[in-house]
Amino acid sequence: MTVRVGGFEIGAGKPCFLVAELSGNHNGDLGRAIATIQAAKDSGAHAIKLQTYTADTLTIPSSRPDFVVPGQGPWAGRTLYDLYREAHTPWAWHERLFAEARAVGLEIFSTPFDATAVDLLESLGSPAHKVASFELVDDGLLRRIGRTGKPVVMSTGMANLEEIAHAIGVLRGAGTRDLVLLKCTSSYPAPDDQMNLAAIPVLAAATGCPVGLSDHSLGVVAPVVAVTLGAVMIEKHFTLDRAAGGVDSHFSLEPAEFAALAEAVRRATAMTGRPGFGPGLAEEGSVTFRRSLYVVEDVASGEPFTDRNVRSIRPGFGLPPRFASIVVGRRASRNVGRGTPMSWDLIAGGAE
């Protein structure tokens, strides 16, 4: 099964779809957002992805403990409202960002976080919609997205198989036909030992959907491993410069790193190939350098072949070495010179 997002086809046997996630790494600067789009294109991305929300569509202003980010991470102690107010991409920018992406040849789509965001993205002709891991449990939002009939990319962080199946059912019931799932670990950054990338082929088999990776780990190792396990899409947060800060900068890739990711994924995809045995195209010229049976001393007609006058050596034009026990003790059908590759017609009576 393949899914088309704009001009790009996603699925097995297709080039891995590489998505640069802008998120809040524009730091509230439209010029920076536009520059990030160009940098994503230059770094090998196939698409740029936005997030479409406001602080008010995601939460309420409150300093009650429920609304404060716990822990020790870079967001710890901040209220959800303040964090989302800083990180959001202003809706007034969307038309310009869509135009800029299209002008440089990038696909562009977004994660809508409520029905009004879906409406905005539909008005801009978004080729697909993303469902964030945290919104996978919101049936109302899923139904609104499903009713667009557009392809959907859904992250599955934190979700068990029953929740994933339920969300798929809601989307399908509302009108979604084309669906890509993303394995995701919703931790920022995600620890290596919690990535559990072995779930990628299991998720694909369980759902019948193409599966990719929404990667919050550090570096480019996870995408490389993911494509060897069948991932057809990689989504990675992207920033012009981590040192410039930004709410998601600490686990985002800079342009040179994303370019390295694109090259590594391309090579890993090529190396994974498909199951097969026997000489491959690149090995055809090497087969002749295998060992085989050769006559290494002159042997007169009627003289027996022995361990001394027949040996397993390189190159590989003679009989395979496994036939040595059959050859030794048989007699030559004619005079055989030193350096002759062993063959059945050299043996009196042939292969009988």
Word description of this protein:
The structure is a single chain. With 352 residues, the chain is an alpha/beta fold. The protein has two domains: 2-53 and 88-272, Aldolase class I (TIM Barrel, Alpha-Beta Barrel), CATH 3.20.20.70; 281-346, Type Iii Antifreeze Protein Isoform Hplc 12 (Alpha-Beta Complex), CATH 3.90.1210. The protein contains eleven helices and 13 strands. It has helices at 30-42, 55-58, 80-87, 94-104, 115-123, 139-146, 161-174, 199-207, 221-228, 255-272, 324-327, and strands spanning 2-5, 8-11, 17-21, 47-52, 107-112, 129-131, 152-155, 179-184, 211-215, 233-237, 292-295, 310-313, 340-341. The strands form three sheets. It has an eight-stranded parallel beta sheet with strand order 5-4-3-10-9-8-7-6. It has a three-stranded antiparallel beta sheet with strand order 12-11-13, with no helix packed on it. The longest helix has 18 residues, at 255-272.
Short description:
This protein is α/β, with parallel strands linked by helices and 352 residues long. 30% of the residues lie in helices and 16% in strands. Strand 7, helix 7 (161-174) and strand 8 (179-184) form a beta-alpha-beta unit.
**Which regions have little confidence, pLDDT < 50, spanning 5+ residues?**
none
Spatial ordering of strands, largest sheet: 5-4-3-10-9-8-7-6
- CATH class of the largest domain, anyone? Alpha Beta
**How much beta, percentage-wise?**
15-25%
Number of strands: 13
Kindly report the average pLDDT value.
95
Q: Say which CATH homologous superfamily of the largest domain is assigned.
A: Aldolase class I
Distance between the termini: 52 Å
Order of helices and strands: EEEHEHHHEHEHEHEHEHEHEEHE
Radius of gyration: 30 Å
**CATH 2nd-level architecture of the largest domain:** Alpha-Beta Barrel
Quaternary status of these chains?
single chain
Helix count, per DSSP? Answer: 11
Largest sheet: 8 strands, parallel
Name the shape in a single word: elongated
